[in-house]
Amino acid sequence: MLNGEKLVRQKFSGDNMIVVIPPEYADVVAKLHDSSERFFHIKNCGDHFEMEVKTSLSFNRVALGLTRKRLGSFFSDIKVVGGVKKKSREHIIFEPKRPLTVTIRFSNTELSLIKEAARKNAVTLSDFIRSCVLDKVFAPEGGGAA
Length: 146
Known about the structure:
Blueprint: H1 3-11, E1 17-21, H2 26-34, E2 40-44, E3 49-53, E4 57-60, H3 68-77, E5 79-81, E6 83-87, E7 91-96, H4 108-120, H5 125-137
Antiparallel strand pairs: 1-3, 1-5, 2-3, 4-7, 6-7
Helix pairs in contact: 4-5
């Protein structure tokens, strides 16, 4: 267990997801800083970096300047508290734990339209609805559709 991971687990509130990144990936952290930080915040804790992630997030290997081998090492070396990490050939994906359920009502026609849109996007109904809502939440000020 990374020293930083132990500290994060001690102070973890359960309301967010924290990714603990070892200091040898400072170059990757710099590239993360260059990307949109509406979805996450990174702080340097000296012996590690902590990335507080607000929602599901994925990073492309090429955008981070990683070879496939280094992507694998990065994936192995980072630790996640309050969520899970997944890796595909080209991406690292972070997903928070989701202990809450929200009930929402739709008409049959609305639900059919939403299911079809989810199918066309090759995602589950839950993931589609969640992404639509969070797109609105994280839209730049004045950038969301009404």
